[in-house]
Amino acid sequence: MRNILVIARREFFAYFGSATAYIAIALFLALLGITFFFEVPFLIAKPAFFDARVADLRPLFEWMMFLFAILLPAISMRLLAEERKLGTLELLLTMPVTESEVVLGKLFGAVGFLLVALVLTLGYPLLVSILGHPDVGPLVGGYLGVLLVGTTYLALGLLASSWTSSQVVAFLLAIVISATFTFIDLVPEALGLKAIPAFEVLSFNYHFKSIARGVLDLRDIVFFVSIIIGAVMLTTWSLESRKWKGA
């Protein structure tokens, strides 16, 4: 456990050791505020907060999920790809740490970045509570849902980062994987077809909306946790396979 925490701490402070993290979070908060509070003509979404005149926080969390689908792959793309490019991954794996400790440490460090971003969004629900009376259930469920789907994005991004030494390729792979599983339930609707249950079962968006309603269903939580665990295991195997090839 100590090794995991050491790696997590290193990754967390590496994010905030440059201006990139601050710029990314500032841009995220700005876009979140604009899309939630105001109508954006070229985007198809629910009415903006001031247009709807209802203290409903669910659109806020939906926008968080969509924005994180882009931001978090950008954050996770460097986790292993950069190590491979610099040649430090092999050095790291020769130290007294296991592959699983490396993977978990890097994931926890990235989740720390996610938590900072989420804490900084608390001003929006606070403002809404001043203007209206939002329900507590969707507020708690919304943050839990965003945390779960955000961690899932990071785990998938970490997996993509283990496949290549190019951060750009890792980013694009993570975007494709995350976007596919996020919006797969919307494909039938876009094609004018009836909902396909199999697509809904696989959809991040479908399970996220269920949690964000404030009525927790264990199946939705298990869905995200299972994908996170699966991504961690696949990433660990990816690192182990490099050791076998080098042996």
What can you tell me about this protein's structure?
The protein is mostly helical. The protein has one domain. Helices cover 79% and strands 0% of the residues. The protein contains 14 helices and no strands. It has helices spanning 2-15, 19-37, 49-52, 58-76, 78-86, 88-94, 99-120, 123-131, 136-161, 167-183, 187-190, 197-202, 204-212, 218-246. α4 (58-76) runs antiparallel to α10, α4 packs across α13 (204-212) and α13 (204-212) packs across α14 (218-246). The protein is globular, with a radius of gyration of 19 Å. The two termini are 27 Å apart.
Keywords summarizing the entry:
mainly alpha, globular
Report on the biggest sheet: none
What structural class is derived from the secondary structure elements? mainly alpha
Tell me the span between the first and last alpha carbons: 27 Å
Whole-angstrom Rg: 19 Å
User: Count of DSSP E strands?
Assistant: 0
In one word, what is the shape? globular
In short:
With 247 residues, the protein is mainly alpha-helical. It has 14 helices and no strands. The protein has helices at residues 2-15, 19-37, 49-52, 58-76, 78-86, 88-94, 99-120, 123-131, 136-161, 167-183, 187-190, 197-202, 204-212, 218-246.
